[in-house]
């Protein structure tokens, strides 16, 4: 098992072993501890793991830990999406949620900010690809911005973003609500689906609710004028 170890960190031998799934990953304490409160505490405590320099992480999947280590070792941040997948598909949302949860568990704040920015950038791309059509939605092949099924996923990941301590810019939020309101007719519209998904969130973040509400209010005011 290897990750994208940058040249800056290759002059010293690894002195810690992480056990993730059935893999042993050799890493450096001086890379992990300054950036992760979890590793700092684990390696400085009087425990068996600290003595053996071997830390088990059963809470984190191998592919997610690889993403975390890539960031810790300062490899260029690349898309966490699987090849051919889209940012707000079921698979992508599940993976990005796991990455954010891993950052929270390991207490790596800088990584959380970077991935939140990635999600915001993906929101800004909504509606910019003129080749995307979903003819099964209306039967006419009408140009739309993203599939209605993604609206619940977007609500879910935005709540995770805010819950991690980050926020989405006003510009990105305004773009999102404008696109959600593009076909605001009936219970199957994107806006209706988004509202229903927000209502189902089990642990809603107050700041997320505030920002999405303000963006919707601003959109309605522009329409009135």
Automatic annotation (TrEMBL):
Domain BTB: 14-81
Keyword field: Kelch repeat, Repeat
PROSITE patterns found in the cross-reference section: BTB
Top-rank taxon, per record: Eukaryota
Matches recorded under InterPro entries: BTB/POZ_dom, SKP1/BTB/POZ_sf
PANTHER family in the cross-refs: KELCH-LIKE PROTEIN 32, LD33804P
Name recorded for this polypeptide: BTB domain-containing protein
């Amino acid at each position: 098992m290897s990750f994208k170890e940058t040249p800056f960190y290759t002059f010293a031998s690894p002195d810690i072993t992480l056990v993730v799934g059935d893999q042993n990953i050799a890493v450096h304490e001086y890379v992990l501890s300054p950036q992760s409160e979890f590793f700092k505490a684990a390696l400085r405590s009087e425990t068996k793991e600290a003595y053996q320099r071997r830390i088990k992480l059963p809470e984190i999947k191998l592919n997610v830990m690889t993403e975390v280590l890539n960031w810790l070792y300062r490899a260029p941040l690349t898309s966490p999406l699987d090849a051919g997948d889209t940012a707000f598909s079921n698979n992508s949302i599940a993976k990005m949620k796991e990455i954010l949860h891993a950052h929270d568990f390991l207490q790596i704040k800088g990584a959380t900010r970077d991935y939140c920015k990635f999600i915001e950038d993906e929101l800004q791309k909504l509606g910019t690809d003129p080749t995307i059509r979903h003819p099964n939605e209306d039967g006419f092949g009408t140009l739309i911005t993203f599939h209605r099924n993604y609206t619940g996923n977007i609500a879910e990941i935005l709540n995770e973003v805010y819950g991690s301590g980050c926020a989405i810019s006003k510009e990105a939020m305004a773009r999102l609500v404008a696109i959600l309101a593009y076909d605001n007719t009936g219970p199957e519209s994107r806006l209706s689906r988004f509202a229903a998904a927000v209502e189902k969130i089990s642990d809603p973040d107050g700041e997320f609710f505030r920002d999405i509400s303000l963006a919707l209010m601003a959109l309605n005011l522009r329409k009135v004028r």
